[in-house]
Amino acid sequence: MEKKTLLYLPHELIVEILLRLPVKSLICFKCISPEFCSIDFETSLNYDPSPVSLGIGDPYRSVQINGSCRGFICLISSSDMFLWNPSTGFKTQIPWAPKYLYEHNYGFGYDQSREDYLVVLLSTDCEIEENPFSSHLEIFSIRDNRWKEIEGTHFPYCGGGHDNRLLFNGSIHWLSCRIDIEIDVIVAFDLMDRKLYEMPLPDAFHHHGVPANSYLGVFGEFFSVWARDYRNGTIELWVMKEYKLNSSWTKTLVIPLSTYFNPICSTNNGNIIGKSHSSGLHGLVKYNDKGQLLEFHSFHDGRPSSAVLYTESLLSLPGNNEQDYKLKE
User: Are 135 and 123 in contact (CB under 8 A)?
Assistant: First the structure.
């Protein structure tokens, strides 16, 4: 009888095949084959539309998404802060920052030079009469498991909102108002250098109150900002053709939209995906560049919500506590 031999598949082809499977299946493969444990599964290309949930106790507690990075989502409620990987079910709790002022902006990102995840808190107390610009910049290192204040950082920024942040090019960006000169700016924190810097908005944006009506995003490969004009019933898209170069701001789109629409991202063919919270249209929506509604996916209820771009991964946190790790049922 002729002896059959197993077909040899190159390592690169195995990885290409496995990346098309759901993340949950990849977890099972890593459990049964030592060879799979050596493969770095950054992401899976399989789309699973089924919802994933995380129990946080009180169902009526307000929860905000603080950011998404490398498969992890940072969640903040009125009493807790978590890092959660929906693909694996891993979650870990983050302690509150020692110094927490009234006006605050959180951010979440990855410091590639130190292989460390950071939660960033930029907070300002705008109501202290004797020191109207009392401010703190603190970072929580997942690797060190502690908060650290960046000393000597003073900044007169207020506002921004929970949905007005963007992780781009190794920095966390916020839309804020510089209250000492009453001008709207982009504030950014470099995760590797651990320094704060300021970027100007397009010259056409220089009117007070822009952060409440604008959103940061990425259009194609460019850093961008969306601005709602309620008077004209339009949304404008400005892109920065060269990062950090103010003169490279270019108005790219003007879309006729009178609804309350928060853009999240753009597709490869130029359609715009975002969150709508208008009466009768509460959920995720997709428009083309002419403002025509292409898709609508309603949320399960009408309570306030957050939305963020998310990429599946099997990554774990540096020095994570194994008892916090639990596969999804």
Answer: yes
Collapsing DSSP states into helix, strand and coil, what is residue 97?
coil
Q: What is the CA radius of gyration of the chain?
A: 22
How does pLDDT run across 280-308, given as a tens digit for each residue? 677 888 999 888 889 988 875 656 677 88
The total of other beta-carbon atoms located within 10 Å of residue 66's CB is: 24
In CATH, what number does 63-196 get? 2.40.128
253 membership: H or E segment, kind and range: strand 249-256
Q: How far apart are CA 177 and CA 212, in angstroms?
A: 10
Residue given tokens 């604008």 in the structure block: 214
**Alpha-carbon torsion (289, 50, 72, 212), positive or negative:** positive
Contacting residues for 304 by C-beta, under 8 A, at least 6 apart = 62
Angle at 302 between CA 301 and CA 303, to 5 degrees: 100
Phi, psi torsion values for 30, nearest 5 degrees? -65, -25
Task: Please tell me the distance from the alpha carbon of residue 273 to that of residue 260, in angstroms, as a whole number.
Answer: 13
pLDDT tens sequence across 53-110? 565 555 556 778 889 999 999 998 777 889 999 888 888 999 988 766 556 788 999 9
Q: Give residue limits of the domains in the chain.
A: 11-44, 63-196, 201-298
Sign of CA dihedral 125, 127, 130, 132: positive
User: 122 in helix, strand or coil?
Assistant: strand
* 248 DSSP assignment: G
Burial (0-12, 13-18, 19+ Cβ within 10 Å), 237: buried
Q: In terms of pLDDT, which residue wins out, 47 or 201?
A: 201
Tokens, residue 305: 């919500």
The whole-number pLDDT of residue 205 equals 72
Q: In the CATH scheme, what is the code of domain 201-298?
A: 2.40.10
Cα 187 off chain centre by: 16
